[in-house]
Structure formats: structure tokens, C-alpha cells
Amino acid sequence: MRFILLFLFLSCTARAMGNDSQDTIKLTLPQAIEMAKANSIAAKQAITVKETKYWEFRTFKSNYQPQLALSGILPGYNKTYSQVLQPNGTIVFQPIHNDNSSLTLNFSQTITSTGATIYGTTQLQRFDDFDRNNVLYNSIPYGIGFTQPLFQFNNLKWDKKIEPLKFNESKQAYIEAQEQIAVTVNGYFFDLLLAQVNLNIANTNLDNTHKILKVANTKFELGKIARNEILQLQLEELNARKSAGTAKRDMEIATLNLRSYIGMEGDVRITLAIPAVASQMNVATNKVLAEAFENRSDAIAFGRRLAEAKRDVAKAKGQNGLNATLNANLGFSNTAGNIPDVYRSPKSQQSVQLQLTVPVLDWGRSRSRTKTAQASEQFTAYAVEQDKQTFKQQIVTQVTLFNMMKEQMVLTANAEQIASEKYQIARERYVLGDLSITELSIAFQENDRAKRDYVGSLRDFWGAYYQLRYLSLYDFEKNKKITYN
């Protein structure tokens, strides 16, 4: 009799946990993460940000490449009246009817080390006077020039230091965004897994309570138990039905949340595989710190922030005192009535110009700007140092938490096994009449709590692991840096 009842209970449990495989997909935690990285809105946003930063960097690099531009006025037709001042001070309006067209090809190249610009130009201009039926050409066959700022802030030099840091920072930020997706999926995954476990527990308890109630009714008819035990079991059955309904609702909500985040289309049913525990995974604090300072965008940002503060000081100093710009150009020009003649025996042209700006009295404005920038630089240095300490502390705490979760997993797994075995024994003893209904209820509750605690410890373990990946951008299962194309 004992083995027949045990068989009935186990069969009921299997039916409660088993489901029709049609239109059902079994999903593991890594599969859910990969689906989210491929389909989720968060993944698409991360890709868009990555592409934006890439093209911003390409724009920056183009500033250091030779530039070639063609400009012109084609046509420059004009028919109007224009006022002309006469020698006696009067104004006469003269008719104007002409076309003044031009075409210019300019070349320029910046010099990063000094901030100078070298440029070259060639130009052809045609002037048609329709009133006098006259055509005139003007040309600059070629000309070269040089512009050199003196005692000024060199923006090109500082951008060349800072912009590559920003680009590298954005590349690592993209990897972090992908790992943050894994952290988020882990939460949704275990929300659904716990909901499914709760539903299985509720259905199993409902079936088992129903079977035990039948046995108790038989005992009651034989006068072996009191009416109070029947009422207690009936109450247990009602509570089990209520728990099953609540668990089903929670599972549907959790399924919708997971499906929505990972971008799964359709209404296919999802069942989750319980993740295994990577008990052999060893994580050392020094290793995680080294990888974090090498890989994280925050670590790159530390250097970038200090460089920006130094740039601001240099800019403030460059705007104080003497500012000068040296302009020089050399070339040839000519004018003629036709195109071939305009290029014959052109006349040379040269110009040299030095522009100066010297503050005579600014009431301490220049000195104040410099001191403000220097104070801001000092504050940034302190802030970066503080952020480094917080950065280190966060990693040390996470490593400690991960190792604790790994130990906790062993304890909860043992507790779940013991509670399950205790529940089986209590159920059999009650059927044999060797256990009270109160003790059976306690065994029910302990078994349910142990199963939930085990799933919760799994959630904490994998949550700590993916958070550790996010903080270090290192795969501790494969022992290599995390990269994405």
C-alpha cells in the first residue's frame, strides 16, 4: 500500500510539471542573453551609439588630412542701377549689366605640432560687360600661403590627444552595454524561472493535498482521525488552489516581460532550463582589478578627464597676453582678354602680415581665467582619484559577493535536497498514520521554501557573475577578454 501511494504521488507530480511539447521552446540562460543581444531595443540602441561615435571619430581624423575644395560663382549675372558718387558730391545712378563669374580650387593642410595651415589656390575669373560688349579675364595660376598662430592655444594638438581616448572609451562602452543586457536578462530570466517553479510547486502541492485529503477521508470514515484534520486538509487544498492561481498569473507576467525584452515574436510557450553552477570558476581580486583598469571605459575616462582639464588650462593661458598670427602668401596673377593670354607671363604677388593683439588693461580678467582653469584642473584630479577608489571598491565588493554566492549555492543545494527528502518521508509517514497533519504542513512549507531558496541562490550567483563580467569586461569561464564585432 505504501509503494502504491508513493507511485500515485510521484505520477501526479510528473503530470503537474510535464507539459505538451508542441508550441513550446526550452530556453537556457545563455540562449536568452544571445537573443537579447541580437534583438532587444537596448542592443539596437547600443549599436546606434557605437556607429555615431565611429563617425564622430572619422570626422575628427579628417581634420588632419589634406582638404581640396572647388568653389565658384556660375553665373554671376547682374542687371541693375547702382549709385555713383560724383566729384561734386552728388549721386548719379548708372545702369549696370554684366556677368562676373569665377571658379576657385583651394588646397589646405594643417600642421598639428604648431597649429599652422599651409594652403594653395588657383583661380579663374571672367567678367562680361554687356553694355560695352567687353570681356575680361583675371587669373591666379597658382598661389601658396601660410598661416601660423603665435602664442595661442593649439586646438589640433590637444584634440589629437583627447579624441582617440574618447573613441576607445566609446568602444569599451559598447561592450559594457552588451554586458549590461546580460545583467538585465538574468533578472527577467530568473523572474520567470521562479514563477515557473512556484507554479510547479503549487500544482504539485494541490495534487498531493487532494490525494492526501482522499486518504484522510478514508481514515475519518474508519474513525482513525478527528474532524479537525479533515478541515485542516480542506483549508490546505483551498490555499493550494489559490497559490496555483496566483503562480499562474505571475508566470504569465514574467513570460511577457522576458519575451518583450529579448525580442521574441509570436506566442510560443517558454520553459526555462535551470542553469548549472560553475563551481570550478575561480575569481581573484587582483585579476579582476587588472582587467577592469585595462578594459573598462571608466578607466579610459580617468585619463581623458585629466587631459581635458590640462587642455582647459592651456586654453586659458593661450587667451591671455600677446596673441599674434603670421600670414604669408606667394603667387602669380594676370589679366587678359582671353584665357590663353591670362596664363602667359603672369605677374608675381606677395604679402606678409603679422596681426597682434595685446591686452593693455583687463582688470585681472586674464589672470582670473587662468586661475579658474587651474583650480578646475586640481578639482578634476581629486575627483578622478576619488572615482578610482570607488571603482576599486566596487570591484572588490563584487568579487567578495561572487565568492560568497558560490559558497551559498552549495549550502542551499544541500538544504533543498534535505528538505525534499524530509518531505517525501513526512508524506509517507502521514499515509501510514505515523505523522500529524501539523508536522506534514511544516514539511510542505520547508520543502517549498528550500526550492525557492535554491532558485534564489542561483539567481544571486549568476547575477553576481554577470555583474562581474560587466565590471571587468572579462570572461572568467573562457579566461579571455570580452570582445564584440
Account of the 3D structure:
This protein has 485 residues and is of the alpha+beta class. 60% of the residues lie in helices and 22% in strands. Strands 2, 3, 4, 5, 6, 8 and 9 form a seven-stranded antiparallel β-sheet that branches. Strands 1-7 form a two-stranded parallel sheet. The protein has a two-stranded antiparallel ribbon with strand order 10-11. Helix 2 (29-39) crosses helix 3, helix 6 (285-295) packs across helix 7 (297-318) and helix 9 (365-431) runs antiparallel to helix 10. It is elongated and about 135 Å long. It starts with a helix and ends with a strand. Mean pLDDT is 86; it is low at 1-22.
Which structural class is indicated by helix and strand composition? alpha+beta
Whole-number mean pLDDT: 86
- What is the helix content? 55-70%
Distance between the termini: 63 Å
Beta fraction: 15-25%
Q: Helical segment tally?
A: 10
- The strand count comes to 11
Largest sheet: 7 strands, antiparallel
Secondary-structure element order, N to C: HEHHEEEEEHHEHHEHEHHEE
What tags apply to this protein structure?
485 residues, disordered N terminus, two-stranded parallel ribbon, elongated, seven-stranded antiparallel sheet, 10 helices
